């Protein structure tokens, strides 16, 4: 972990403390402590378990993809990947550092860079697809409710969905209209050379074309393995579902046992979409504000609302970064055989 990343991590932790302190400005500390002491720790334990399952299911997806290509890849190394991803997603704007960090973590186990890139691309496609599907369902269920609570910010939700949908469309175009997509990307990139040095533009163009080629070849390779893809889609569905359920179990822990599980889960889907648009790492500030605005009508006590927000943020953001720090000090196992397995 570079010195710059350590500084950013420290800054994000300090920013988080500052945001929590600001949220508590009108709440007596003794009241907050009393609310925390009287929560149902069994339900809070279920919320923690949901986050653990979220990381574990993503590790299973990595294991499924890698084991299809290479023998000797352990679940321990697979588990390091989402943990490292959580850390670098949390300290980079728009979660842009997660993919490169996963690639490095896979290469540390002895996985070839090309194979690792292909696996991460396919994992990304499945994940993005399920986000879009879940969002469409949540939008139908909770759009009117979130519109009443966020007013103008509701269009950020729609904008976030548009971006995710555009990414999926772009990836599908690479898979099914490879030649056309390559030409279109070349046309889009061409104006960049007016503002960039020739060498830098050439490197950027080569890098983008390389990723397009890698994704296309991997999609061709895996297109006939529908059982594998179906398995990954199902695992990803459950992975996202346990993550989206976390606020519901936090509300149960705080005594709000009449909470509507479908509505609460749908609203969390929309919150996650809003967070993805904030340029500050982890969506800090925007995440906390969105949560409080959306769940204010569900949690009547102001102190419990802030406590719910803090617990939610600790689980869905800071817990992931903590596991990433642990993963950074765990030495990876090495792949015992760098041998491609035959396609099914």
TrEMBL record:
Per the UniProt entry, the Enzyme Commission number(s) are: 2.3.2.3
Q: Does the keyword Lipid metabolism apply?
A: yes
Which UniProt keywords are listed? Antibiotic resistance, Cell membrane, Lipid metabolism, Membrane, Transferase, Transmembrane, Transmembrane helix
Chain ranges passing through the membrane: 41-66, 124-143, 155-180, 228-255, 261-284, 305-330
Highest taxon of the source? Bacteria
GO BP, one annotated term: lipid metabolic process
One of the Pfam families matching this protein, by short name? LPG_synthase_TM
Topology in the membrane?
Multi-pass membrane protein
Q: Which reaction does it catalyse?
A: L-lysyl-tRNA(Lys) + a 1,2-diacyl-sn-glycero-3-phospho-(1'-sn-glycerol) = a 1,2-diacyl-sn-glycero-3-phospho-1'-(3'-O-L-lysyl)-sn-glycerol + tRNA(Lys)
> What's the main place this protein lives?
membrane
Q: Which GO terms describe its cellular component?
A: plasma membrane
Which InterPro entries does the entry link to?
L-PG_synthase/AglD (IPR022791)
Q: Cellular location of this protein?
A: Cell membrane
UniProt-recorded Gene Ontology molecular function terms:
phosphatidylglycerol lysyltransferase activity
The yes or no answer to whether the keyword Transmembrane is present is: yes
What the record says about family reads: Belongs to the LPG synthase family.
User: What is known about what this protein does?
Assistant: Catalyzes the transfer of a lysyl group from L-lysyl-tRNA(Lys) to membrane-bound phosphatidylglycerol (PG), which produces lysylphosphatidylglycerol (LPG), a major component of the bacterial membrane with a positive net charge. LPG synthesis contributes to bacterial virulence as it is involved in the resistance mechanism against cationic antimicrobial peptides (CAMP) produces by the host's immune system (defensins, cathelicidins) and by the competing microorganisms.
Q: Return the protein name.
A: Phosphatidylglycerol lysyltransferase
Where does this protein come from, organism-wise?
Levilactobacillus koreensis
